[in-house]
Amino acid sequence: MMDCQVKLTVPVYTGVDKELFLREIYTMRRPALMKGVALGSCCDKWTVDYLADRGGAKPVTVHVSPEPRMDFLHKNFLYRTLPFDKLIRRAAEETHSNFFVSENESYYLRSLGDDPRKDPADLRKQFPELAEDFCIPEFFEAEQFFSCVFRISSCGLQLWTHYDVMDNLLAQVSGRKRVVLYSPRDVQYLYLSGDKSEVLDIDTPDLDRFPDFVKAKRYECVLNPGDLLFIPALWFHNTLALEFGVGVNVFWRQLSVESYDKRDPYGNKDPVAVSRAMQTLDRALRALDDLPPDYRDFYARRMVLQIQSRAYSTDPERTGQPHEKAESMATADMETSGYSSPLS
Ligand SMILES: O=C(O)CCC(=O)C(=O)O
User: What distance in angstroms lies between residue 310's CA and the mean position of ligand 1's atoms?
Assistant: First the structure.
């Protein structure tokens, strides 16, 4: 059944500088995998010992899960605090002699700001000794910067499918990671709960519960150390650590500062105009509540038609010449790394 799902590789680019990024990648608003972008000395230096030594014993809050696939619906994980050096060592080992729930538990660190309720994470502030090894790719203006986040995962750790409202460059420093992405245009097939998809097992989904999931086009890539993935705002992404791995991602604003919710240190609250529109929609729907069901149904359908004709984009999903070229490179790359799923 899942064979019906359209599978696409994320296009691969080499030799990307700011000019090429802005001209050929950023404007397309589609994910792109970039190889060979200078990320600094982190790619050589960040061994477990080095990270533990330089990162020190600063306390960090981590997700701890007895199962590697984290489940936000049934909350199969706990938040626990560990010194950073201990977290690194535990995340890198397969079985633990010191643990919270089980000797095989998995760890995931998404670093936080100094005041996690208010401040976005910034590696330069929370981990200055390590931040000097990481070069933030200068593909956007300094005033667009939002946050710079450490991502550390045990082997096998899978993070649920979600979207963020900021543009994102995800740098893989060590370890390999599979990333599956879905277009914002396929949102109706993803069974959302807030910003997250309820389909946790994206490889063998329960199609009785999620019959339309197969209609979402699946974009996939594997990040190797040194790779940089552009995830445009609103693109859904699901990550699976194929090995213990360390990454850093940088979020930045595409829209003006005022467009975003000021109380959002994570970059995942919908823009203020959207929150207002959602409240208005809720009021509009409540206004239909007292009507008999057949009237409510008829006028709700007319409202949907009005939304479609007024607000849906008539642009096809942007697929320009540069991406097509890059996609054939991507296919070759995937074949040499043993990827055998048919592309359709
Ligand atoms: O690297 C990961 O595991 C997750 C990355 C992510 O969700 C993000 O960059 O927004």
Answer: 33
**The tokens of 344 are what?**
């359709």
| Nearest alpha carbon to residue 127 among 39, 56, 175, 49 | 56
Residue 314: pLDDT band (50, 70, 90) is: confident
Element (H, E) at 160: strand 158-162
Q: Report the share of the chain in percent with pLDDT over 90.
A: 88
CATH class of 2-269+315-336: mainly beta
| Of the candidate ranges 17-21, 197-201, 314-318, 337-341, the one whose mean pLDDT is the lowest | 337-341
Residue nearest atom 10 of ligand 1, based on CA coordinates: 164
Return the bridge partners of 158, or none: 69, 240
pTM to 2 decimal places: 0.91
The reported pLDDT for the residue numbered 105 is 98
d(CA 28, CA 318): 6
Amino acid (1-letter code) at residue 141 = E
Distance CA 146, CA 227 (A): 21
Distance of CA 102 to the CA centre of its chain: 27
Pocket mutation for ligand 1, best pick of 168, 178, 236, 242 (most atoms within 8 Å of C-beta): 168
| Biggest CA pair distance of the chain | 68
DSSP 266: T
pLDDT in tens, 186-218: 999 999 999 999 999 999 999 999 999 999 999
Domain spans of the chain? 2-269+315-336, 272-311
pLDDT value for 340: 29
Helical segments of the chain, H only: 18-20, 42-45, 48-55, 84-92, 123-126, 128-131, 272-288, 293-311, 321-336
Single out the residue of 234, 235, 240 nearest to residue 172, CA to CA.
240
164 CB near ligand 1 (under 6 Å): yes
Please tell me the chain's helix, strand, coil percentages from 3-state DSSP, rounded to the nearest 5. Answer: 35, 25, 40
Phi, psi of 313 (to 5 degrees): -75, 140
Query: What is the per-residue pLDDT across 77-136, written as a single tens digit (0 to 9) for each?
Result: 999 999 999 999 999 999 999 999 999 999 999 999 999 999 999 999 999 999 999 998
